[in-house]
């Protein structure tokens, strides 16, 4: 068996790992490169292996940095099955067409303002191509071991990162390999903790998004209670830029709990993001896979005003009474939240609460680091609103939580490969695994190929 690293090396995006077993090629994750330009350009390069020669894709979870290249791979000749859990497919149904739509928007924008070197600029794939790709998905239950090709078995194990997320155990007669996917938190408010893998894999491929960091221990209930009460007292609006999948549902649940305890007044809550609304519906349909009951999901649903159309979204900006607006994107890098920021950020009475990881270079990162003005759609807005950062609500385990999960393996593996981290974070994770667990470990290079014996 051979393992080649086609992505997720030196960056947190573009996760793709190729397993060659006998004459079969299997791709674990098929992520889009995101972030800085040099990395994004890889989405446009020729794929390192012939996509038509790949037998199947196995998907750890729905986030685009793990799934977003699938429609492009199909365009270039891949036609095999794509295996994942049911909830992962439900989320891909939302995320992939949206990604295609955004690719088309970008191409249209580039053509209109003529800033692309390519004439005309083309999308990586279209919304229609993304919808078509969903026909190749095949769902499996957690813990259901199935034979993908003769002699090679796969099992999805819950790993608590987002709905449907899995660590993959791949077994042949002579070799076991564990892919962590993205690992969740030990004590998340709504997701179950990552399940221990009671096996001894020969090889482990582990993520390192937070390889060099521990999460802050801010109590999200306490922070939101204080911020909401203070802002209401001043007659302001609380704006929460949030990730559509996962964090939005957590924030809605916390607000619901605070209201039930009468810790905050019963002010209206608006969810202004069609994608977050769809993700909340999927979240409620799969209530058996997280900590909330069907009834709690129903209460969140009932207590939230869903804003679907652009007209409703524009009308929201005219609201003069205290309210909570949750809107994507989570780092304020695009989406409807920008329109709210433009209206709200220059008034002292309002508050903006960022939730989870804020990538360098985003507006969320600038604002949580004390920026005094922010540029939106070509114009600068002074920041007078109070700005907060709830980092403790991240969907990624920090290095300490990942070490705890790894340490539950029955024996150390022969080798651990650290991936899916920026270079500094990946190397810090390597040192933690080497020093704290005493395991053999290294950080592989892009396109490196290793033989697994
Ligand atoms: Zn993820």
Automatic annotation (TrEMBL):
Q: Where is the Beta-Casp domain?
A: 248-367
**Molecular function terms from GO:** hydrolase activity; RNA endonuclease activity
Highest taxon, organism lineage: Bacteria
Locate the Metallo-beta-lactamase domain: which residues?
A: 13-243
One Pfam entry for this protein is: Beta-Casp
Keywords per UniProt: Hydrolase
Does the keyword field hold Hydrolase? yes
Protein name (Swiss-Prot/TrEMBL): MBL fold metallo-hydrolase
Question: What species is this protein from?
Answer: Spartinivicinus marinus
